[in-house]
Each structure stands twice: as structure tokens, then as C-alpha cells.
Request: fold
Amino acid sequence: MKKIALVGCTGNIGKQTVRIVRENPDRFSFTALVAGSNKEGLSALENEFRPRRAVCAKEREPSEEELGELFSDCDVALIAAGGFAGLQYTLAAIKAGKTVALANKESLVCGGEIVTREAEKKRVEIVPVDSEHSALFQALSFRRNTPFARLVLTASGGPFFEYTKERLKVVTAKDALAHPTWNMGAKITVDSATLLNKGYEVIEAKWLYHTDFSKIEAVVHPESIVHSLVYFEDGAAMAQLAYPDMRLPIQLALTYPDRLPCLDQLDLVKIGTLNFYPFPKDKFPCFSLAIEAGRAGGIAPTLLNGAGEEAVGAFLKGRIKFLQIAETIQGVLEKIPNAGADCFETLRAADIQARELAKRLIYG
Reply:
């Protein structure tokens, strides 16, 4: 019986994790459940699974001691909280010496240096839950130190891949939320539409696989069947293929190296042609802004994320246009000087600063 502490239990990834646990009661149980603001949803899960701890983070931020207690008796901490808030839970789980199944991009985007340093110090394994990084992990035979030539992350291209720059000026939040292949939360779906999400994943890949940005690239693959590829020095390439369904990478993060039944087997004849296209950096500047921030390091990725979260929130409310998301992020990165990121408190301060400036740029 594997004991799980699930942070972000009422979100999209959390709900799918709950489904996996519900379907495999002899293999998994919850020791702790954390929700952001959905107290009613948390209460229902608490009644069903009877974890030792259940926390609604919006009611009050847990203390450092309480964070440690959340992970004291689990085998794996699945961090599925959205946004910068997930970073403190990732660090607390590492401090507790627990395996981290990581679905929170911001933990490595904002805190990659700190997270990887602490994980190495505590000898904690970080298992990726993102479909792209799970694919790379599988292609590397579950060994992140396997030598490789380059990593290729695939992207669906989102709903606007074929749009012109002129057409992008008038797209709405409703248009952005109509993702062609994946069912995700609103923030990640918009980040997929701007391709900021893929920039985040490139930064994550740098930290997860201890490599340079020059060895990571992205391509558009609209069918979302090939979830990522690894190229090796001899010219061989290994890819992971599956129908686009997050249950597979979530479940695998909990069971690897073992595999349990999950999705239907691929019918390649029925699928037919798989297409790949160059990444459209010129039309979607959020991707390049993310790579620039990742290369700069320090607090730049935290500024990028804080500005991005505020800009996406404003776009979803109809306060700014689609292309203004990138303009807001760029404005924050240009106006706030970069600095070193030596601890969580430094990153938290940078996150607050980025959000405050983004709001001024958006609302005046």
C-alpha cells in the first residue's frame, strides 16, 4: 500500500489522482489532502478517504512545522497545486525526505536551483508528472543521468497554432480555453494557447535532466500522440507514445518502475499520419520570454511566472487582450532588475514584486 500526500486535490490533476486511488484501493491511500480554496470539495474527499490531515490553504497559510507534518507519514508527495504556491510544498516534502511526484511546473521554473540542490542534499527523487517530462523519463529508462544528445518536447500548438498575428489580436478567453487535445485547468490551458507553458517545460527540462538549454528544443505535434523524444549520440531516437490522457503519467509516477493497466492500447493504423512542425516562436513571444528568463536565471523566472499568472488572470476576466499577456510579462522583466535567488524568501519577495508591477501595468 503506497501512502500519498496530495497537494492540490480538487484541481484537474488532483481529481485524476483521486480517480486512480479510488480505482486501486488495495494499492494506494491518502495520508494528507490539501486544497487551495475548494473547501466543499475537500470535505467530500475527506469523508471518502479519511486522511489523517486535510487542509484548505486559502483559510490560512500553513506554518513550516505544519508543512512538515503534512508529509511526515507518506511514501510519496504528489504536488499538483497550481502556481508559485506549489513551491513551498515541494520544498517541505523534500525537507521531509519524501519522494516527490511533481506536477507543479513553478517548483522548477521559479525554484529549480533551490529544489534540485535540496533534493540532492536529502537524496530525494523527483518523479515528473507532466506528460512531456514523464515521456522523457520513460525514454531514458527511468534514469535521468542517462547520456543523451538532445531532448525534444512536443507541443500540440494549442487552439491558435494556425492563426495569423492579426487574428490573434481579437481572440477571446473562450477561444483560448478550447484546447484541441487536452483537458486542463484554465490557467494551464491559456498558457498552452500562448505557448508559455512549453517555455516553462524547457526550463523544467534543464533542471530535471541537468542539461543546457542548447540541448533542449520544442516542436509542434498537433495529434499529441508522441509526448516527447530523446535523441542519442548514435542517431537513435526514443519516444513515448500514448493517447493524450493525464491518467497515464500520474499513475506511472505513483507506480514506476511497475506499470498498471490504464489507457487503451494505441491503434496506429486508425490514428494514421503523425505530423510535426517547427515551433512558431515569432507568433508566440511568451515562449521566447520564458527561455530568456530561464537562461538569465536568478529571480527572472519567478518574475516571468508572477507576471504571467496576473496577466492570464486579467485575460480570463476580459481586462486585457490575448497579445497583452506577453506585453505584460515583458514589461515586468524589463522593469525589475534581475538578482540572485538564494532561498525561498527571496523568490517569494520577487513573486510579490512581479505581481504588483503586473497589476499596475494592467490596471494603471
Q: What stands out?
A: The CA atoms of residues 77 and 354 lie 29 Å apart. The mean pLDDT is 95. The radius of gyration is 20 Å.
